[in-house]
Specification:
Blueprint lengths: L2 H23 L4 H10 L2 H26 L7 H17 L5 H13 L3 H29 L6 H38 L3 H19 L3 H29 L6 H11 L1 H4 L9 H12 L4 H29 L4 H13 L3
Helix pairs in contact: 1-12, 2-13, 3-4, 3-6, 3-9, 3-13, 4-5, 4-13, 5-6, 6-7, 6-8, 6-9, 6-10, 7-8, 9-10, 9-13, 10-12, 12-13
Length: 335
């Protein structure tokens, strides 16, 4: 990513966030939001913080398991690098935290950037899988998406298709990448080169997984980790006197995940809140109450990761400016 493109991405993200914030402000009553924030149950928010911590611990352990065929690293080192990466995503544009994680993993564990980015790509694939499963399964079970039975069968079929695709990529990834590259090369050699380079790091990471057992372990640990995220929504909503069921919270999380996927400012300001409020509107929750919930959960999550990440970063003798420079060096070298 060239320097000019990095700056352009930053401004594009800020503009997108500003648009979503504008759309949100048209729906809410600021006085009601202030009133809801004052009335929030602090004890329930404490449980939110507890599940946030549990979630990041579980996801770091999942990443360590994915890394295991490449290199076995101490839990403390993996957790520290994991949190610093998420902190970088909160403060730096264009999700540069992924590059930060790859760089730090190379420093801590002498893991190549290609292998590190491959394991991070695996994480993202399983996270998208969980997003879809919780969105469809939660929506069906809570009645938002119609027939419960049909939704459950759709969720199961989607899970099997995605898992089969992941397993196929882990077994025959090189052949599939080569075939795709040759096919795309007939249309655009330059596009084929970029696409093959992007997919190959993911395939390299997948091939480190040793068969169906590893796929199953990562799938199961992802289900548990995302269940703890659902619990953060559950307890934060309870803090604002909105007692939704677990499936309904899973649906809200699935919709809210779209706000993370869409490009935006560092930390996903505006986009995450907009999709949370939109999902809760389908469950008949007042927009001002929903917005109060959304900014509270977002602030707790952002604050926890940012504070921990900065502490770990300073303990490593680095700074945000240094991380920005390192990611610039990494991306300037790319074609």
């Amino acid at each position: 990513m060239k320097r000019r493109q990095r700056i352009l991405n930053l401004w594009l993200g800020l503009v997108i966030s500003a648009v979503f914030i504008f759309l949100l402000l048209r729906q809410i009553d600021p006085r009601q939001v202030a009133s809801e924030l004052r009335k929030a149950n602090v004890a329930y928010l404490g449980l939110t913080m507890l599940f946030l911590v549990i979630n990041y611990v579980l996801r770091a352990l999942r990443w360590r398991y994915i890394l295991r065929p490449v290199k076995t690293l101490p839990r403390r080192d993996v957790f520290r690098v994991f949190i610093i990466g998420f902190m970088a995503n909160n403060l730096l544009p264009a999700r540069l935290g992924e590059l930060v994680r790859a760089y730090l993993l190379g420093q801590v564990g002498r893991v190549s950037a290609t292998a590190a980015l491959g394991t991070i790509a695996i994480e993202r694939v399983f996270d998208v899988l969980m997003l879809l499963l919780y969105l469809i399964g939660g929506g069906a079970s809570s009645g938002v998406l119609g027939s419960t039975g049909q939704g459950i069968w759709t969720t199961a079929a989607l899970a099997l298709i995605l898992l089969a695709g992941i397993y196929a990529a882990s077994r025959w990834g090189d052949q599939l990448v080569g075939l795709g590259g040759r096919t795309l090369g007939g249309v655009s050699p330059r596009l084929a080169e970029r696409a093959v380079g992007l997919v190959r790091s993911f395939v390299t990471g997948l091939q480190a997984m040793q068969g169906i057992r590893d796929v199953g372990v990562v799938f199961g640990s992802s289900l548990v980790a995302w269940a703890t995220i659902v619990m953060t929504l559950y307890w934060t909503l309870r803090a604002f006197s909105v007692p939704l069921s677990f499936p309904a919270c899973a649906f809200v999380l699935g919709v809210g995940g779209l706000g993370v996927i869409i490009p935006s400012s560092p930390g996903n300001a505006g986009t995450l809140e907009f999709f949370y409020v939109s999902a809760l509107a389908l469950l008949a929750v007042d927009p001002s109450v929903a917005f109060s919930f959304a900014i509270t959960l977002h602030a707790l999550d952002w604050g926890l990761v940012t504070v921990m990440g900065l502490i770990f970063l300073w303990g490593s003798g680095l700074s945000l400016g240094r991380l920005w420079g390192l990611t610039a060096e990494e991306t300037e070298a790319a074609p």
